[in-house]
Fold this protein.
Amino acid sequence: MSMFRSFINAQSNLTAQARRAFSTTLYGSNGIKKSACVNPDMLYLQPRWHVKKDQASTQGGAGKVLVGMIQKRWNSASAQPVELGKIEKLRNIGISAHIDSGKTTLTERVLFYTGRINQIHEVRGKDNVGAKMDSMELEREKGITIQSAATYAAWKEYNFNIIDTPGHVDFTIEVERALRVLDGAVLVLCAVSGVQSQTITVDRQMKRYNVPRICFINKMDRAGANPWKVVEALRTKLKMHAAALQIPMGAEDNFQGVIDLLKWKALHFEGADGVDVVERDIPEEYMELAKAKRAELFEHLAEVDEAMSDMFIMEETPTSEQLAEAIRRATVARKFIPVMMGSAIKNKGVQPLLDAVCSYLPSPNEVSNIALDIKNEESKVELSSDEKDPFVGLAFKLEEGRFGQLTYMRVYQGMLRRGGFINNVKNDKKIKVPRLVRMHADELEDVDEVGPGEICAMFGVDCSSGDTFTDGALQYTMTSMFVPNPVISLSLKPKGKETPNFSKALNRFQKEDPTFKVHVDAETKETIISGMGELHLEIYVERMRREYNVDCVTGKPQVAFREAITDGSKFNYTHKKQSGGSGQYGRVQGYIEPAEIDEDGKDAFFETRVVGGNIPTNFIPACEKGFREGMQKGFLIGHPITGVRMVLEDGAAHAVDSSELAFKIATLNAFKEAYLKSNPVIMEPIMKVDVTAPIEFQGTVIGGINKRKGTIVDTESGEDYFSCVAEVSLNAMFGYASEIRGQSQGKGEFSMEYLRHQKVLPQEQVELIKAFQKKQKEDQK
């Protein structure tokens, strides 16, 4: 009887018959108390034990259960906050990678082994359920992650907040804001493709927010899997010290498990869905390789850790404990990347990865989080991760939920409580927290309070992405996240009559996604949407149809050209207008010159050096307004101007006729006059294009890139596939998706991301100006 009592509050994968037998054994067939006995379909415990269905049976009538093989998983069913004071047992991690590296598949296994879900579903599974973290219908249809999804899980005595992020470059803002609030990350790499273009982008984002990471080499079961090539690419392409903590036993179809170089054991993943991690002695045929790779691990640690360096010089042999401590120190200091390996789809290598996350990634109180004190000239202040200190939190993501706006919040210090009051630092608005939830993909679990280091969500709070909240005692604001500029635009109009849902959808998407922009063209009166790529905009158009019942017609994609000057020039312009009564008068004098974009992304600079009151100080803001208005729409093809500094040196005013409007018009016309004398050029977005295709199509694919006037930067050939990195103008990339499919019999794929703006060729500039002038004439008719 006592043996069975340990199963109370356990969630089991037993058959219904076996669950009823448990319940009957505990309470008898007639005396089952609903308050005492958990529903036999839903039993809970921690750690979680369950009996294989095929080995659970009843013998000798109800009440006797033959327990077969016992397997161990962990229960994450409780949504209660991590125990206060145990912040060192909390891990906030993101799972990031290049598209199709297996992030969502890996997250699905993590949720299963931590007991968060009871059944594994594949991203493109035959059961049409889809992975848990791909909760949007579009995600399950296309087999890609579009929005980052958060969940909460427990592994052994540790608690995890996990965010699964998209791999496609079009949804890079999702990765950006996830990494902004996370303390560590798992960088997933494909054992065949290795370090790809988006891997480098994600690594750059991790470095921007100082996020330590662990690498997981996934897809070890694929043909052509080579983990050592991937580890070498980490060192050469990401310029990081990296070494494997495991070596694989076999590869491709023969992948059996991994050898742990610290435990010095061979790990086999047995039982249903690989839940049993069985440790055995290292097979003799892998002993030499294991010794060599452990020595290599020691060497790389010696380059980044002082204690290991001293031992290496003294020719001492470190123990496994010393190696583990050194790995943690170097990983938290972002000097070293530990590399794990396995196959998520084959349920191998995931549990050791969870152990590595607990052992080597930092807890929230080990990470330095900096806020700016508004009351003290925005001086930097380090936050404490103490629950007793005043509350500070960051709203890093917004989402339209079933019950209104859902605001994702990272708590940095203090406590956030349901029913409590918090202040939005940006507008000093006091807000009551009506409902506090923890997220599990698209499911909500109510909680009463959340402590430092935690990630949660609030309902009914009107704010913007990136707003900082405090309890009112502090005036701190968190540093903002990096938001890339859109590179592609589309004209958009609803089919038939425009409904309120059209503007409602666009307003919501703009609020949720800082890289999605909407404006109305002043001349054509068309609604223009801008984003990070064709797929990005296509997804939003499809979401408008599904979520708001608004069918839209899109125009031809427009490239986000920019205009710039290459020389400086002076201006001396007088604006004079007399029409009876007081007229308009303003004279401005100075020069314009090219300017570099600064660290904050500013590309337009206005300076005044006017002395003696020749231009009254109250008219100077109007002069700046005229200059910035001119920057918004260029004078060659009507696109924004970038990289200009205007210096106002002198001018003249009239006692009666001068006004703000007169000086604004004078500065605008002066800027136009000087701009056209400064050798203006048109700049086009250049994309970094990463193409992967079978080796037999290499010549055809590279020929296609050359035809689009692309510059080949790097090529790499494997046994079956080759990859090519090129720089191509975005204007030349339209229609490339169908072209590469045709060139490679549907086996090739490509991804691209914005690199920089670059001058167009002179003949292209002439053609663009002619096309713009022709369009203007047509619009005037």
